[in-house]
Structures are given as C-alpha cells and as structure tokens.
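Milestone M4 deliverable, item 7.
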Amino acid sequence: MNYLQRQFHALLDHCLDERKEIRSLRKTAFDRFNQLGFPTKKWEEWQFTDFSEIRKNEYRLAWGKDLPKIPDKIPGLIPDTYSIIIINGHYQPQLTKLPTGVSVKSHEDFSQIDGDEYSLNGNQNPFLALNTALMNSEISLIVEPDSIIEKPIQIIHLTTALSDQFMNHPRLVFQIGRNSQATLVEHYIGETKIPYFVNPVTQVSIDENASLNYIRILEEDIFGCHTATTNYILKNDARLNTTSFSSGAKLFRHDIKLDFAGDGGEAVFNGLCLTEDQQHHDQHVIVDHQQNFCQSRQLFKYILAEKSSGVFNGKVVVRKNTKQTDADQSNRNLLLSPSALMNANPQLEILSDDVKCSHGSSTGELDDDAIFYLQTRGIDSETAKSLLIHGFANEIIEKVKPISIQDYIHNQFTDWLS
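Output delivered:
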C-alpha cells in the first residue's frame, strides 16, 4: 500500500459524518487516480515534466495538529484588501473580512452545495482526480448578483512551521453573480524548509454580464511542489481578466481551461513565470471557443535563469459553426543562462471559417546590441541587463490592477532579480 492509499483510508476514517454522495465521489475519484497514475514522459501533454518528486516522497494530509500559532503578521497580505486566510489547510474565519454582497462557505458546510463543483467530467488529469479524492481544505466564495466589490478579495494559502512532509488538496469554488464586478487574488506562500505538496483545484463561474479581475500569485518555498487545476466558465457577455505570477516551488504544473459557455464573452490571460536554480515550471492552457462573438487574448512570458526549465503548452479551440471568434495567443521567453531550457508549443484548432486567430512563440537571450547601446550611454553591464529584463517583465506587471497588487508583484520581481 503506497502513501496515498494510506492517507486516503485515513481521510475516510476521519470523515465518517460526510455525506454519502461525497464519500462515494471520493472513492470514485481515487479509483480514477489509480487507473491513470502519475503522468509519465509517454503522455504527450505531460512529456516535459518529471513528477517523480511527488511520487517518491511520502507526504501526509494536513490535520488539526498542523495548525501552528497564528502569526501576528500574515505574510503576503496586500494593503487595502478584504482577506480570507488559510494556514496549513485550515480556514481561519476569525481573520476573514468580507464586504456586503460576498459570502463564504468553508469545509464544514461546503459539501452541502448543490451543482457539479466536484464533477470529474471525464477529465484525464490525474491531479484533478487526486484532489477530488483527498480534498481537505474547501472554500466556496459567492458574489451576489448586481454587486460591485470595490476592493480586492485576497485568499492566502500559507504553508508554514511544518514538522514533517505534508500535503494539502484545496478545492476552491468562486461564483460571480450576474452584473457583478470583483477582483480576486489567489495567493500561495510557503515558509518552511521541509518538502511539501500543494494540489489545488479552482473552479470559477462568471455569470451574465459579470466581470472578474483575477490574479494568481505563486510564492511557494523552493522545497514545495505545486500542481494546480483552474477551470473558468464564462456565460453571456461575461468578462475575465486574469494574471498569473509564479516565482516559487521546485516543481510547478498548472492546467488552465476556459469554456465560453455563452455569446459575447471576453477573456484576457497574462502570465509571468520566473525560474532559477533547478526549478521547473509548466503551464498548459486550453481556451475553448464554443459560442459566438467571443474574444480571447493570451500573453505568457518566462524568464529562466541558471539550470531551470519551463514549459508553455497553449491551445485555442474554435468549435464548428461558431461566428466571429477573435483569438490571439503569444508566448515569449527570455533565457538568462545557456543552461536554461524552454519548451513551447502554441496551437490552434480551428473548425469554423468565421474567425480571426493568431499565435506565436519566441525564445532568446538578452540582446547584445541593446546592452552595448546602454553601455555607450554610461550604464554598466549589470545595470543594462537589469533594465532590459525589467522592460521584458513590465509588459505583464504594468497590466495588473489595482496598483496595490501591481506594486506587490513588482517588488517580488525586483527581489527575485536581485
């Protein structure tokens, strides 16, 4: 019996009062995971990422004893935001501050939610199945219809003060009501020198004429492994603007799927990924244009240093008989070391004629001519390189709103670069 099986049976014993439907779903999901197994190099969509670090380490689930003393100052908390704090998988309601029009459900009542929040839907992602089987940290956030939320809502997942190797499988459900506007920040922070594994699944539903500004920040410790699955559903005339910033974790894999479930939807994806040492960051994006008059924009940038590696695999699908689809996908990568490695694979699958689609990818090093030009203006070599790297990253950072979140990401980028 491997460590995942032991932890699964321990969770079932711990959750004896859970609804039988959820209990049954856990068993079905764990069977699915055992059937799929961990991804291997033979899986086309996963071939550039090695998951042996997760497979060989014997992580255990987070239990009540893993809640440390609450820090006097929560790391990463951005000023002028509402907050939801989760520490080592444990929701802290006493630290939650939310505005009128927003409600939150946690682990105790999460399993009473109706709908398909837990559905596997035939998905072949083993980490989604593993999360469904072992989910132990659930949060559902609902923005009521016709609500304008002025300040961002920041959800911090803090991993800290571990005693041994630990894993957490958060399940997050965000529902943005009709005609509403909100900004959400999903923020992962690690402060420990003990290996750990975080495997979140986030499901975002944006109703008719609603608008969501969504920022995802990954600052796991270098000893952490992070595999994430994010699914977006956009209804009629829904708008999504999302930015991902990742600089932490030894191993990071993020599967992103967006479904246009109504006409007139708009989605913008921006991403900045920073890697160093021997970090490996892998992002896989699928945008599914199922309906008419929808627009999507993607711009993902990687900056890779030392012996780190990255993967970007993006795909835009335009379904048959859809009308006036407008999609653009771009991936640009900057190598700061001859030992850094980047694998990029932008794709288009177009099954309709009434489309405007483009995609492209580029990977290169700093421009020697640009460095020389700056040096002729009295700027030393290191400063010249720093200016060029800042310019490359700022195209993403400067698009982040509000300014308080932009400043936070800019400071984290500056610290990484220094």
